[in-house]
């Protein structure tokens, strides 16, 4: 897969294409309350533990990522690569590009089933002083720092759309992943929810 | 026992009247901002008020006392209360698309330019033609709906119902879509405080000081509750100042959220609460990007119910005349809004509390005409200031009637001895005790309990995590509200793990809650109303009693007592107490009706929030959507998906012409269809094949790597769940596809089987439906087309890649793809899957590669025509009521393995040879149209259930056969080829003779499939 970008004349189409427009939206003002960074070209893969391989998988993932697979409700990131807990014995691997996940399945053969999901989700990074408030319009999970902090993750439903959310830092910065085919409806909800606070969209969809 | 002190009334100098001629009833004081007058209109009349006013206070300031007409009798009505319990002052607000009916003037905040109009009157409020209903009152008694308008039945729809609706209709809804948007918010806290009066503020302060996350909701624009409405002192300062300071301290706490203008309308399971915030209702138009209202869903570990109490009216003849008000409301208008609701005010009280109204009126320089106390004696210190000011004091007396044309001009007073007196007044303040607001704590099917010492219902067993404080708990004294609230807040925070002791309760001026209620005047003239909003009088309750509707739920429904939009906030207890008296029972034995959310009416828009119009539910787009849109595609909604239905071209007259052209092109040349909507499941692991064997009903053990096979899945009860394909990509890696409609259902079924039925199997499954864009390329030139898309080096010749082959390939110069040679159309066909981000590029590449061969894009319509031509079962046949045998797949079922549904499919009813079975149908007269859903009857047979032989499940116009065709389920169908039956469709007037045939209409020998 690492070869795609260099050898193909086909251009990938962003999941957000046709919906997201870069630039300022909603309430005008000096600082946007919410900043939306479209995450393009990242690598995603589902890792599902094979029977009885808990320890071996933990070792293999620790070697590759530099940290153990996160516990339920947690996510771990280092150098832009991370694992997000996604269910019992399941994680979503996140990498800066598809190429980062090349050979991943072979490396974990026998320990886990690895399935490429790089195209399956539309991913957006949400930050800005009103990020938490704007997300609370649809995220039923308690995002208060006493309950959800950097390294927290949850699977939830937002605006009737299944979603994964994880927090990257205490700013706070969040990332949200929704099924690709729902990107338009999710974008409608997200930008309408953020409009009240002023919203800046970054990362031009290709 | 009274210790109520009226010293302040005696010592305070009378306040100067406002010299504002436009607002003749405005006096000094209050919390309104007099520097900035606001103009507004009521029934077209220009009036003025001040920021801080409600519509009701501004109307009273202008001397407007007649505000509406009653529901049934069109009686003149004024303003009863100063809160959300208001039953009378129901008005229409705003105009045009923002017109909003049935709002309460008492909670509508005044803004510049507000337009309000009265309801339920014609032609005008002062002269209402339907006021004659009052003269016909005897026929509008309780149960009149049930007794009148019964015959002739035909008159109901055309005459009676429209007439009743016009006569009784409240406001008019707006005719245009709501231009505003509504928002939603989730919130979590340790302690939710419901109500911002003395108890609520104390609770929030106590919990907030301990560091708990606190949410304080208050329905008013300004929290404070009765502290803003009473001339009381806390720690030697005016109570309103204490409230302001408490609010300032709360606002300074980072973990405390104050939500004013927010009504907590419902209590739900597990500590979840619903509230609505009126973000912009106090503005003419919401500012840009600001919602009109916001629905809050609050999850709280603990809740302090400090919702307060509602004052009870007295029940006597003419108690609904404009000018008759609740005594506490008179104090609110006076102390909070600087409005004296009358020039000569009389007070009717059964409690010490009512005397406060007299004291406050005197303190404001108003005139107290009389105080009528229903109790035989009253302490001297209460009487003295009133008598000193020249007001009459009558004890052991009651009001037996009122006088006045459109508003109150005098009251008639009687006592036990029969003495009768008439007192001129333009406002009567009624004090008859207070009812704790027990609605919210009763929402989870709990019932309040009667407390004889305070003559009121109080919360019974509270929902888990909830405590009641202050007057909501029956503690009416201010000192008790402050200390009880603080205690409840402290305990709630402590339960959540926070430390700290409650501060000592502040001191208040002396007070008394002495009270002996009078449920109704012993003798009375004219209609005495228990329920103002629904026009339920004492006579109606007596009638219900006489006719046997005595149980509280029957009383409610027979008389409509408490069934108006106010849910009987001011009326329920009056009804219960009168029924108790009539039946000789104590009040608690009569019981209460059930309280349900919402506490006050909530706009439906607030519940809809973002989800209106196209956003009603989410829409899923296919990877080829952009191309389809560019090319004039007509889409169809299937579930959440927006699927291309067909692609009309210039010159095509209708959808059928386009669909026929698409079918013909696929059958003769090549076509491409987006089938991404199919469910796709990745199955891996050592035991993957064993797992697949157990969930599929046909055998798989022999499936070689690089091969795909049709798959049938049964439910546990033996019916067909879905069908699809399973492809073996490598030794332990399989891909299953299933139908669009059942994608989620099948995934759920597989997870259930993996997690619960066979946790011992080493198998990992995950949905890849969103990862892969998948396109069907079908038609004699399909292979030629794909050769232009698939990278060189992959041999897809018929020999190397035969029917039912599958392989990993690359496309577009190195992009991973999966190729399956499977066919739904019956043609030489492939399905090619590419990573979804490359779906758009792949589609365009296929269209380009197929152009030399005359490729067409085809949609779900052509797809459906071709599968019917091939007799393939789909959603209409796999409908949850059919077995594999029913849809002609019985022969494929495995004999030698166990699988989900194997035993249950053998139940007698499912193996009955008489079960309808899938066959084909064609009209005897080829020009006739078939309709899905038509039932089969023998030719010449009279239609009846017994004669029914089955029905047509799917029909299509087949361009290949130049005729309508159908497939359907009919008894004994397989043996009846050639026989004729009727396809009978009484709904659409269809009755077509059809011939039973094989369900495979096109290429029955599958010669096109394998070339």
Automatic annotation (TrEMBL), chain A:
UniProt xrefs under Gene3D superfamilies: Heterotetrameric sarcosine oxidase (3.30.70.1520), Probable tRNA modification gtpase trme, domain 1 (3.30.1360.120)
Pfam families per record: SoxG
InterPro entries named among the record's database cross-references: SoxG, TrmE/GcvT-like
Entry protein name: Sarcosine oxidase subunit gamma
Lineage: Bacteria, Pseudomonadati, Pseudomonadota, Alphaproteobacteria, Hyphomicrobiales
UniProtKB/TrEMBL annotation, chain B:
Annotated stretches, region: Disordered: 1-22
Start and end residues of each Aminomethyltransferase C-terminal domain: 918-1003
Domain of life of the native organism: Bacteria
Annotated SUPFAM superfamilies: Aminomethyltransferase beta-barrel domain, FAD/NAD(P)-binding domain, Folate-binding domain
InterPro entries noted in UniProt: 2Fe-2S-bd_N, Ala_DH/PNT_CS2, FAD/NAD-bd_sf, GcvT/YgfZ/DmdA, GcvT/YgfZ_C, GcvT_C, GCVT_N, Sarcosine_oxidase_asu
Family annotation (Gene3D superfamilies): 2Fe-2S iron-sulphur cluster binding domain, sarcosine oxidase, alpha subunit, N-terminal domain (3.10.20.440), FAD/NAD(P)-binding domain (3.50.50.60), Probable tRNA modification gtpase trme, domain 1 (3.30.1360.120)
Keywords annotated in UniProt: Oxidoreductase
Residue intervals of the GCVT N-terminal domain: 625-897
Domain SoxA A3: 525-609
Record has Oxidoreductase as a keyword: yes
Protein family membership: Belongs to the GcvT family.
Protein name from the UniProt record: Sarcosine oxidase subunit alpha
